[in-house]
Every structure is written in C-alpha cells, then in structure tokens.
C-alpha cells in the first residue's frame, strides 16, 4: 500500500495581503532530486537543498518589479531563467549575486510561463497560446508573436512532457465556461485542440495533472463536486491535421471523492503513477469537519491508501518531485516523502504482506478473490476451525448486519453487543482488512469512548489495530484515548503498527510510560516478543564483562578523573557503586518494554525536541539511566543475538541519548543527581572518539585493500602476501 512518511519543513511562507494565496508561485526541480527552486509570488527565487532544508542561494528583483512565473533551471547551460513583469526574461548563473546585473531581454508579448524538462531546451509559452524555444526567442526578442487563442479565451494551466523523442507543451484554457486542451508538439511543430466534456453548469476544473504512459498522454482533472476524470490522447498521429478546430475529448470517471457539505474551493489532484493520485483540499472520509488532509488514493480500487493531517490553512497547491510531495500550508512549505508500491488487488485489500514472495514477483494477472481472501486460512488449526464453525452456525441462524447497519448499531448499543457485532463483521470474508470500513469503525468507537466514560471496548480496538489497515491520520484521537484509559497494550500496538504518529503524541506516550509506577506497568499484558527481549537483557550476569564499540570494562575508571568539561573529578569510592548500579535495569520489566516501543518510533529531530522539553528533570534522569543501561548491555561481548525479537537498535538508543541531552543539558548540569550520569555518558563518547581516531589511522590501508584488483583464478586454496605502506 502507498504510505506517507513523516514530513519536514523546507521553509517558511512570506505573509501576503491575500490570505487565500500561499505566496508560492512555483516549485521546480533543479540539477538533481535533492535541489529545488522555489519562486514566491512577489520578488524572490531561492535554491534549496531538500535533504538539509538549507537555502543555497537567493535572488531578488528590485522593489516595484514582480516575478510573474516560476523560475526554471536550464540543464543545457546550467543557468536559471525567470520572467519579471510579464515581458522581461532574466537569465543568471548560481554565482551571480544581483539579478539586475544579469542578462535581460524584453519580448513583444506577455509570457504565461517558461517550462523546462531535464536535458531539454526551455520553452516559452505566451499568454495568447504561442510557443517558442528559448534560444530562438532570444535571437530576436522583439519578433512578432501570433495569437493562437480565441477572444476571451485564457490559459488556466500548463506543463510539458517528453513523449518518446518529442517534447510537447500542454495547456488548458477556458472560454465562457467551456474548457479546452492544447497539445503543442515541438520539432516538428504541431498543434491540436480538444474540447473537454462539460460538467454541471457553472463548474470548471480546479486542477489538472498530466502524465505519459503506454504511448498516451493522460490528463487528470478534478472538479469542485469531487469528481476526478481522466482523458487519454494517443501520441501517434498527433498533429497530422494542424489547426485550432476543437475535437471532442472523451473522458472517464476515475473517482468520486467525498466533499462533505457544499463544493470544493481550493483542491488539487496530482498523478503519482498509473494507479495512485495525491489529493489535497478534499475532506478525509473518516475525519471531522475543519481538518485538512493530504491523502493518497488508489484509483484502480477506489481506496484511501494514506492520509496525513496538515496544520493551518490549505491553499490547494501541490508539487511532486522524486517521491516527495511539496505542500504549502499555514505558514510553512512542507516536504512529505511517500512510496507507492506497484498496485494490485491484494495490496488494496491489505493482503499483499501475507502473499508469498514468488507470487508477489509474478507478472500482473487477474487475481483470485478466493486466494487473496483465504490464502492465510489454507491450513487452519483445529481451534480456528472450531471457532469458524461456530461463527458459521451463528451466521446461518441469524441474519448478518451490513457494514452501515453495524456502524449505526455501535453508536448506541451496550459494550458486549458492540464487541460481538464488530468481531462478527471482521470475521466475514467480504469485510476482512477493508481499510475504509475499518477506519469508519474505529472513528465511531473512539468518538463514543471519548464522550461516554462508561463505554470502552479494548479487545475490539486491539483487533482493529492488528488488521494493519489503520494509521494515526485515520483516527488522530486513537492513541490519546488509549493513554487516557491507561490501556498500555493498545498503546504498544499503536506504536508498533502506526507509521505516522506525530512527535507530540510520541512524547505524550513517553511521559505517560516513564511516570507510571512499576506496579501499574506490571499489570499490563504486553507483546510476548518484547517481554522476551527484556527478560533476556535483564537475566544476563551482573558482573563486569568485556565491551565493544570502543568501550571496555576499565575505561570508566581510567577516564573518570577527566570529568565533564568544567566539572569536578569523581573519587574511586563514588565510582564503584555507580558502575555496579549501571548493570541493573533502573525500571521494571514492563515499563522497559513500553519505553522500547517509544525508542523505535519514527520521528523528526526538529519536531521532537520542543516536546521533549516538557519532561521533568526527574523523569529525564531516569530515562537517561535506562538508555545508559541498554547501551552497556548492547556493548557487551556476551550480549546474545535477539533476531526475531522486537527490540531497539544501538543507533536508536544513541540517537535518543543525544536528543534528550540536547533538550535538557542545562537542567542536567544544575542537577546534582545527574552528575555521575553525565560523566559516564561523557566517557562513553570519549571512548567512541578514540575508536574512530584509531580507525582513521588505518583508513588509507583499508582503502588500498578495497582498490586492489582481485585475481579471478584463485583456485580452491591460496596464500597471498599483501604489503601495506
């Protein structure tokens, strides 16, 4: 299934007088997948390195001048091209500082947009529909420009696509409520005009998106009523008859998105691949009013595959480059990475993860409903058979409720009856792992549980989570409900199965886990694999053992006199009890299991740090002591392998140590109880630095080994002498 990963902020948005405008005129990919050009709606162009969220350069036109189309990168000349005040073309290089001193050329007609494809020459599209290659236009900037469009016809959207070996400029226009599609081919020059079929009176498309596949240009467009249509134009034969006579363009309905009450105002549907569409500005089917989401829909199976709530106002703008979505919302421009695995019926039903490897790699074919829905039940155990037989008998004796009937039923029915009906619904073959229905069930159950303190169905909620058809964005109050009811097993399941938990919720879980008494934690029934891992960790011999990763059993004593920068030395009598206590887990077994789930949750540093500062100093010290305990256990030579058991990695442990220290270092320095802990952590870092330093001394030798040519005919046995200088 498609997935949206945790996003990050690329830059802030400059406020404008028009609150409905994001101030972003356009975003274009630059030299590679990690660089983009962001053009604002006034005067500036900024080059960003996406992975670092770092501006590499910025250029601004003079006060009183305005950039009227987004800047593009000319990959042939390694230059940037933009247009100011509709007629002035500006060209500059990355090392140029002032745009006013860069190359400028004024043309004779207003420009709509400059468009560029990787490896191709930029193309200039004029507001009246004419098209020129940039070099041809600059050779005579004042050349006359013909008018292609009819009176009162105006361009609404444009892009360009390379189809086979020919570049096409694609743009749509509107004239008195009618919409047209133009395909302008280059080298050779051809032009074809199509009329789009009309929708309800007064409705015009909100957004367009084009793609090229199977020798056809596919145009996807979204209407305010939520209807998403696709029109397909074959590339072969285009332009054999050049002219402006409009041909009818058939369309097919791809999806009817939920719009709630009224019509959509600012929304975009963007093609990601042949089966997935990213949508912004359309209500989430399972969320309440007033919330804006970025969603990925599967057009083949009409299913919502992923959703992420976006804070602040949505402007209906969306760009996609290199599996990253760029979306302005509120006061920020965010980057949301995503994946869209190859679409299949099994993945749409949530069953792809259970399919055999050889089947998942087989060529696409007509899938078998029986195999998809019942594959995992091919050899059921006797217990499952008995339960299934009882369920079938009950089904034969009592009529089954439909999904809509169950959704209405659980709004008012008692807890026992709700659990019974939901479990029966989930056991049905036509319902199993159906993502939209599971999302609706969870939303209603959570909503009722929050409003009615006497109503709570823990086993049913756990069963729904284990379908793996849910994520945090489907029901944002799910984890908070589990914390409120102190249902720690449900919290653990959410942390395991939800890939999009926000950092604020992660910190809320951490705060709840670290502050609860060990007695309460031991009462919770948790995942057996997680408990087995901690039992393995805590059952190791308490004595000193050799350590790896540059730290050994004597390093702490050898370096303790160094102290923390600016701190006092610690005596041997003070050191020994602390070292012994480090071998004991500072928290109970079940609390440790829950903390491990937090350590394995995905996060972004910049968003997590502010929430970590809400922890008290007492809880911070305890958490660092536990992280220190895990680090020591992981570094032991005798530490057992835990393959197959759910456990945090050493890298995750050290990342959390760094985050907690960043958030609370000043407080920890002023806390007497944390002095020994900080000293130990300081010594661990020194040991790692010493190890890296020693490895650096043999780096050149290792590189020489790597570059050596391996003899192909070695035989079954050989001895080779390698001299290192």
Automatic annotation (TrEMBL):
It is found in: Nucleus, Nucleolus. GO terms for cellular component: nucleolus. Keywords: Activator, Nucleus, rRNA processing, Transcription, Transcription regulation. Residues 375-397, 548-583 are annotated as: Disordered. One of its GO terms (biological process) is maturation of SSU-rRNA. SUPFAM superfamilies: WD40 repeat-like. Residues 416-725 form the Nucleolar protein 11 C-terminal domain. Residues 375-388 have a biased composition (Basic and acidic residues). Residues 548-558 have a biased composition (Polar residues). Residues 1-338 form the Nucleolar protein 11 N-terminal domain. GO terms for molecular function: RNA binding. Its main location: nucleus. InterPro entries: NOL11, Nol11_C, NOL11_N, WD40_repeat_dom_sf. Transmembrane segments: none annotated. This is Nucleolar protein 11. It comes from Scophthalmus maximus (Turbot). The gene is NOL11.
């Amino acid at each position: 299934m498609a997935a949206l990963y945790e996003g990050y902020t690329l830059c802030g948005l400059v406020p404008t007088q028009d609150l409905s405008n994001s101030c972003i005129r356009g975003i274009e990919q630059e030299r590679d997948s990690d660089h983009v050009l962001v053009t604002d709606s006034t005067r500036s162009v900024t080059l960003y390195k996406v992975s670092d969220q770092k501006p590499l350069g910025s250029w601004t036109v003079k006060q009183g001048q305005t950039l009227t189309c987004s800047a593009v990168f000319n990959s042939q000349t390694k230059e940037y091209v933009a247009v100011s005040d509709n007629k002035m073309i500006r060209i500059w290089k990355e090392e140029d500082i002032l745009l006013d001193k860069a190359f400028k050329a004024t043309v004779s007609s207003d420009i709509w947009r400059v468009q560029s494809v990787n490896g191709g020459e930029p193309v200039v599209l004029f507001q009246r529909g004419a098209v020129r290659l940039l070099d041809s236009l600059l050779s005579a900037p004042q050349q006359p420009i013909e008018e292609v469009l009819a009176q009162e016809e105006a361009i609404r959207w444009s892009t360009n696509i390379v189809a086979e070996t020919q570049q096409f400029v694609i743009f749509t226009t509107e004239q008195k409520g009618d919409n047209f599609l133009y395909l302008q081919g280059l080298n050779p020059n051809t032009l074809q005009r199509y009329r789009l079929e009309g929708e309800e009176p007064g409705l015009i498309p909100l957004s367009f998106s084009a793609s090229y596949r199977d020798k056809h240009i596919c145009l996807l467009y979204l209407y305010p009523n939520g209807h998403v249509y696709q029109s397909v134009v074959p590339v072969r034969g285009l332009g054999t008859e050049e002219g402006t006579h409009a041909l009818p363009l058939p369309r097919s309905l791809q999806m009817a998105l939920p719009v709630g009450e009224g019509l959509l105002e600012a929304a975009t549907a963007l093609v990601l691949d042949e089966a997935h569409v990213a949508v912004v500005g359309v209500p989430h089917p399972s969320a309440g009013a007033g919330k804006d989401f970025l969603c990925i829909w599967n057009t083949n199976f009409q299913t919502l595959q992923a959703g992420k709530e976006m804070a602040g106002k949505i402007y209906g703008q969306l760009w996609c480059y290199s599996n990253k979505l760029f979306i302005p919302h509120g006061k920020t421009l965010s980057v949301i990475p995503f994946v869209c695995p190859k679409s299949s019926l099994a993945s749409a039903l949530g069953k792809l993860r259970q399919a055999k490897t050889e089947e998942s790699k087989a060529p696409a074919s007509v899938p078998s409903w029986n195999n998809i829905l019942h594959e995992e039940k091919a050899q059921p155990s006797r217990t499952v058979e008995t339960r299934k037989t009882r369920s079938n008998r009950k089904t034969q004796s009592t009529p089954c409720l439909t999904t809509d009937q169950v959704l209405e039923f659980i709004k008012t029915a008692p807890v026992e009856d709700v659990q019974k009906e939901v479990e029966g619904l989930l056991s049905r073959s036509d319902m199993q792992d159906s993502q939209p229905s599971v999302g609706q069930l969870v939303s209603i159950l959570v909503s009722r549980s929050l409003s009615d303190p006497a109503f709570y169905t823990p086993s049913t909620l756990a069963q729904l989570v284990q379908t793996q058809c849910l994520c945090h964005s489907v029901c944002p109050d799910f984890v908070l409900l589990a914390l409120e009811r102190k249902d720690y097993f449900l919290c653990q399941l959410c942390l395991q199965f939800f890939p999009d938990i926000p950092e604020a919720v992660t910190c809320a879980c951490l705060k709840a886990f670290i502050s609860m008494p060990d007695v309460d934690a031991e009462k919770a029934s948790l995942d057996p694999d997680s408990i087995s891992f901690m039992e393995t960790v805590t059952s190791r011999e308490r004595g000193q053992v050799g350590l790896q990763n540059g730290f050994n059993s004597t390093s702490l004593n050898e370096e303790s006199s160094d102290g923390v920068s600016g701190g006092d030395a610690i005596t041997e009598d003070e050191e020994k009890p602390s070292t012994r206590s480090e071998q004991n887990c500072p928290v109970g077994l079940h609390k440790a299991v829950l903390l491990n789930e937090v350590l394995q949750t995905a996060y972004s540093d910049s968003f997590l740090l502010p929430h970590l500062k809400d922890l008290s100093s007492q809880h911070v010290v305890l958490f660092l002591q536990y992280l220190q305990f895990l680090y020591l256990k992981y570094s032991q030579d005798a530490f057992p392998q835990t393959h197959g058991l759910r456990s945090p990695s050493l890298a995750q442990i050290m990342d959390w140590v760094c985050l907690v220290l960043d958030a609370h270092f000043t407080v920890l320095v002023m806390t007497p109880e944390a002095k020994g802990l900080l000293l130990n952590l300081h010594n661990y870092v020194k040991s790692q630095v010493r190890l890296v330093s020693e490895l650096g001394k043999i780096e050149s030798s290792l590189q020489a080994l790597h570059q050596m040519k391996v003899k192909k005919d070695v035989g079954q046995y050989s001895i080779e002498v390698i001299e290192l200088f």
